[in-house]
């Protein structure tokens, strides 16, 4: 009986763990990839008309020959950051491809990014999901306190209901 009552919580727990994991992974702006898919949060308005600031995106690792002018790609910039911009030119040097990107709201093109710096091509974006993630990242302490209070409240209600039956 006790195990059956806990089994219905498993889907909820899995969803919560996935969501918390995404919040943690995207908080670092990092490049943590899951089976070739990298979840990220857009933190600047450089692509505002196509991918608004705070959008959640997924960049998929694809062969560089599947990236074309007009695609939105995420590339490494420095040791710990990435940028997601639109491909405006593709150049070739010594048989290697490089991508010149530009934020749609920017005036200047970015420096050419070699194909080895490409994190992936943007295959999914959601401003709503991104805003939820950003809200949770900024208010994680209050959310954890709220969850703890909710669990404590439900436990107390169950305790007093069980006690009143006796």
Notes on the structure:
With 166 residues, the protein is an alpha+beta fold. It has one domain (2-165): Umud Fragment, subunit A (Ribbon), CATH 2.10.109. Helices cover 37% and strands 28% of the residues. It has helices at residues 2-7, 10-27, 127-138, 140-165; strands at 37-41, 56-60, 72-77, 81-93, 96-102, 113-114, 118-126. The protein has a seven-stranded antiparallel beta sheet. α2 crosses α3 (127-138). It is elongated and about 80 Å long.
Describe the SSE topology:
Blueprint: H1 2-7, H2 10-27, E1 37-41, E2 56-60, E3 72-77, E4 81-93, E5 96-102, E6 113-114, E7 118-126, H3 127-138, H4 140-165
Antiparallel strand pairs: 1-2, 2-7, 3-4, 3-7, 4-5, 5-6
Helix pairs in contact: 2-3
Helix content: 25-40%
The largest sheet is: 7 strands, antiparallel
How is the largest sheet built, in terms of strand order? 1-2-7-3-4-5-6
Query: Alpha-carbon distance between the termini?
Result: 19 Å
* Low-pLDDT sequence parts: none
Order of helices and strands: HHEEEEEEEHH
Radius of gyration, in angstroms, nearest whole number? 22 Å
CATH topology, by name, is: Umud Fragment, subunit A
| Strand composition percent | 25-35%
CATH class annotation:
Mainly Beta
Q: Which CATH architecture would you pick?
A: Ribbon
Which secondary-structure class do the elements indicate?
alpha+beta
Our count of helices gives 4
CATH superfamily: Umud Fragment, subunit A
Mean pLDDT: 85
Q: How many β-strands, per DSSP?
A: 7
Number of domains: 1
